[in-house]
């Protein structure tokens, strides 16, 4: 019905009107355009069930039309959206005339709007401004409207709202909705023929269950409860309708006559009483004292609306507002109707939870542990009471699954306390100028030094920057600092670091050495014993060789090898504060990147303070024996020989054995090859022994023979 280019144009023009950018046009031009736009949005909403504007935006556009028509009544046309209700006729069902037209509702958004409505109603009824006027207030159910006709106590017909005058006949489908009684004792109240108005909806939890089942069965998911209900009413077969667990809330009589054809509804007195009667007759009606109330005045009605706005999320059904109705049926009749809505009722709309806007750009943030989070920058838009221009996109998969592109028109949602998120791109509004979002392969934040490739662990959704030196990287740094590779603090893994960090005990690496062990002992899963063990591990780490501390500072590109080399050349870690890049470069195997990064690190007074604190806490800041290069051994049994250990040694640890071999002049190698001179074999030697024997050039020693030699 509408082409893609046209849809995009209508969307753009609608946003222009909403931004007030079209008001300079003469009314003769604005009016037809506004009508065209509103009709397009009604089609998206009622027929496609996939609106491209939020309800709030649609209502604002509608109000512009109304206001313009009010000042230029001569320009009103009978087919204007202000003169009739939006049509959801699809042509799939036979259409039938309603006994009384089914209309829309006027809108209000706050107590002030309601007060204005109250004044208007009283003016219309020729009442004093301070005269008493009671209202009935009930939820505005967000589903599909239905009209049920009963004759002689039997359900004879059900229809959708259609275009308000004609509805679609869906009796078979309505009959399988359990809360629609097939018969009801209207005759007890002198009612011979009635038309009831209601809303067909689906419980939110049932909706979630159905979608969970569909997901498990590999079926496409239903978009939302409203569409599931309206679509459910229009199924071809009643058994499919039954599967959807639909319910019908009845909210009023539309019509009711006695056997002679005289009105028999007015006699019920008030709307409240009419609903009590319907409850009595077995209909599902908003419960008095819970979902509905009688309000003595408009302020009380407004307070009830406000209360429900805060309780909306917890309510089992989707409601998009409340409806405030003059309670007295005779006064309703006197107030009457426009061609679009009753004058005696108004919808109090809750803040819209959805909005549409344009996705302009994607920026990337680095989180606490180096996690890269893509953030959509959008054209600013009001959503649930706040202006939104940034929306988290969570991770790469989210972008891929939704097929989001730069320049897309997107649907945003913000429900309850949930942070705003992008529901989907509006694909029908694309014009081909949209650009793919290119996921970064290197750290997008850290722009100093060489690009850092991002990493993604198996089973994880997030990409991380492993060595990011920018932003809030402390947690990631601390984790690395305590890791086996750096300070090697036994028993203190990432989990504890994250836990202590969350508790506020860790801010920088310095805090690792002043943890509150008394409090740790009280943590769940700890106890005195493990707290004490942790303290011991940390105390032991204080004696580490200097290279581990240097490496544990997470200086970009300053790796293990370079840390070891630098540690050999200083007497105290703070000596480096005076080092020039040139001095670093004088060390063989240290390159310019490391020279630049380490100099920059030590030029930062904050870092120097941290190192002083570490020293004060007892962390070793001077080179140890392990840091010093082993003086070249020129004497000993193994001078000039290479050696390798295999199997488990009984008398010595592997490390000790290696130390002794070095002291005896040997060089340790890691594999059996033609270059290997000696293989020392412990218990259960594996393939290395076989390989060495096969080579025939390797001298094989038992542990005892080896010990005898050294
Ligand atoms: N987003 C869009 O592009 C777009 C387009 C068209 C319409 N809309 C939305 O639809 C509204 C107009 O639709 P509408 O004509 O259906 O009007 P409406 O939804 O504002 O109000 C009328 C309807 O409310 C329902 N309702 C639920 N509970 C009720 C109760 N307790 N008492 C009385 N009625 C109750 C009835 O089905 C009735 O038909 C707009 O204000 C807008 O929110 C949005
Ligand atoms: Zn980075």
UniProtKB/TrEMBL annotation:
The lineage of its organism: Bacteria, Pseudomonadati, Bacteroidota, Saprospiria, Saprospirales. NAD(+) binds at residues 55-59, 104-105, 138, 161, 199, 325, 349. DNA ligase that catalyzes the formation of phosphodiester linkages between 5'-phosphoryl and 3'-hydroxyl groups in double-stranded DNA using NAD as a coenzyme and as the energy source for the reaction. It is essential for DNA replication and repair of damaged DNA. This is DNA ligase. Gene3D superfamilies: 5' to 3' exonuclease, C-terminal subdomain (1.10.150.20), 6.20.10.30, BRCT domain (3.40.50.10190), DNA ligase/mRNA capping enzyme (3.30.470.30), Helix hairpin bin (1.10.287.610), Nucleic acid-binding proteins (2.40.50.140). It comes from Neolewinella maritima. SUPFAM superfamilies: BRCT domain, DNA ligase/mRNA capping enzyme, catalytic domain, Nucleic acid-binding proteins, RuvA domain 2-like. Keywords: DNA damage, DNA repair, DNA replication, Ligase, Magnesium, Manganese, Metal-binding, NAD, Zinc. Residues 633-710 form the BRCT domain. It holds the Pfam family DNA_ligase_aden. Belongs to the NAD-dependent DNA ligase family. LigA subfamily. Its cofactor is Mg(2+); Mn(2+). Zn(2+) binds at residues 443, 470. PANTHER family: CHROMOSOME TRANSMISSION FIDELITY FACTOR 18, DNA LIGASE. InterPro entries: BRCT_dom, BRCT_dom_sf, DisA/LigA_HHH, DNA_ligase, DNAligase_adenylation, DNAligase_N, Hlx-hairpin-Hlx_DNA-bd_motif, NA-bd_OB-fold. Its EC number is 6.5.1.2. CDD domains: BRCT_DNA_ligase_like, LIGANc. It catalyses: NAD(+) + (deoxyribonucleotide)n-3'-hydroxyl + 5'-phospho-(deoxyribonucleotide)m = (deoxyribonucleotide)n+m + AMP + beta-nicotinamide D-nucleotide. It is an enzyme of class 6 (ligase). One of its GO terms (molecular function) is DNA ligase (NAD+) activity. The active site is at 140 (n6-amp-lysine intermediate).
């Amino acid at each position: 019905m509408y082409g893609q280019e046209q849809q995009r144009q209508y969307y753009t023009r609608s946003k222009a009107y909403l931004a007030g950018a079209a008001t300079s046009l003469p009314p003769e031009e604005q009016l037809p355009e506004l009508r065209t736009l509103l009709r397009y949005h009604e089609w998206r909403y009622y027929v496609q069930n996939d609106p491209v504007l939020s309800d709030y935006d649609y209502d604002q556009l509608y109000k512009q039309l109304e206001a313009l028509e009010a000042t230029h009544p001569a320009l009103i046309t009978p087919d204007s959206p202000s003169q009739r209700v939006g049509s959801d006729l699809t042509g799939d069902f036979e259409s039938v005339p309603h006994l009384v037209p089914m209309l829309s509702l006027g809108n209000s958004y706050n107590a002030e709007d309601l007060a204005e409505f109250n004044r208007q109603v009283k003016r219309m009824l020729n009442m004093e401004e301070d005269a008493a006027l009671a209202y009935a207030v009930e939820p505005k159910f967000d589903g599909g409207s239905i009209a049920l006709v009963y004759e002689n106590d039997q359900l004879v017909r059900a229809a959708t709202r259609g275009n308000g005058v004609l509805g679609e006949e869906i009796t078979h489908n309505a009959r399988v909705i359990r809360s629609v009684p097939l018969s009801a004792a209207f005759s007890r109240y002198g009612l011979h023929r009635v038309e009831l108005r209601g809303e067909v909806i689906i419980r939110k939890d049932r909706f979630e269950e159905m979608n969970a089942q569909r997901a498990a069965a590999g079926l496409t998911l239903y978009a939302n409860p409203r569409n599931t209900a309206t679509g459910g009413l229009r199924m071809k077969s009643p058994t499919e309708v039954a599967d959807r667990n639909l319910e019908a809330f009845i909210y009023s009589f539309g019509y009711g006559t006695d056997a002679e054809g005289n009105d028999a509804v007015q006699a019920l007195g008030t709307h409240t009483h009419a609903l009590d009667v319907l409850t009595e007759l077995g209909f599902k009606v908003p419960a008095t004292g819970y979902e509905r109330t009688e309000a003595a005045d408009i302020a009380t009605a407004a307070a009830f609306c406000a209360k429900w706005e805060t309780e909306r999320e917890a309510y089992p059904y989707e409601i998009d507002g409340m409806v405030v109705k003059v309670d007295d049926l005779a006064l309703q009749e006197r107030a009457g109707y426009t061609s679009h809505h009753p004058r005696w009722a108004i919808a109090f709309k809750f803040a819209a939870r959805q909005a549409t806007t344009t996705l302009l750009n994607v920026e990337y943030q680095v989180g606490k542990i180096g996690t890269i989070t893509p953030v959509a920058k959008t054209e600013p838009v009001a959503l649930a009471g706040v202006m939104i221009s940034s929306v988290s996109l969570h991770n790469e998969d989210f972008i891929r699954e939704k097929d989001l592109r730069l320049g897309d028109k997107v649907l945003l949602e913000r429900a309850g306390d949930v942070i705003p998120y992008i529901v989907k791109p509006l694909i029908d509004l694309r014009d081909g100028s949209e650009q793919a979002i290119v996921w970064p392969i290197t750290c997008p934040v850290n722009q100093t030094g060489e690009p850092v490739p991002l990493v993604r662990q198996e089973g994880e959704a997030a990409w991380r920057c492993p060595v990011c030196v920018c932003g809030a990287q402390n947690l990631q740094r601390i984790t690395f600092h305590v890791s086996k590779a750096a300070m090697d603090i036994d028993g203190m893994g990432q989990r504890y670091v994250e836990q202590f960090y969350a508790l506020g005990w860790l801010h920088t690496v310095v805090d690792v050495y002043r943890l509150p062990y008394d409090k740790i002992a009280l943590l769940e899963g700890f106890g005195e014993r493990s707290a004490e063990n942790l303290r011991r591990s940390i105390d032991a780490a204080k004696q580490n060789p200097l290279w581990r501390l240097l490496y544990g500072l997470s200086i970009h590109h300053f790796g293990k090898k370079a840390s070891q080399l630098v540690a050999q050349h200083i007497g105290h870690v703070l000596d480096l504060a005076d080092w020039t890049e040139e001095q670093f470069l004088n060390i063989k195997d240290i390159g310019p990147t490391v020279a630049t990064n380490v100099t920059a690190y030590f030029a930062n007074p904050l870092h120097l303070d941290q190192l002083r604190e570490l020293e004060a806490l007892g962390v070793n800041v001077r080179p140890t024996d392990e840091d010093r290069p082993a003086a070249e051994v020129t004497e000993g049994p193994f001078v000039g020989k290479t050696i390798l250990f295999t199997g488990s040694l009984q008398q010595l640890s592997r490390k000790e054995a290696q130390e002794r071999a070095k002291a005896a002049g040997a060089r340790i190698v890691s594999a059996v090859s033609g270059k290997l001179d000696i293989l020392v074999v412990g218990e259960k030697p594996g393939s290395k022994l076989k390989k060495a024997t096969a080579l025939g050039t390797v001298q094989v020693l038992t542990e005892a023979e080896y010990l005898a030699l050294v």
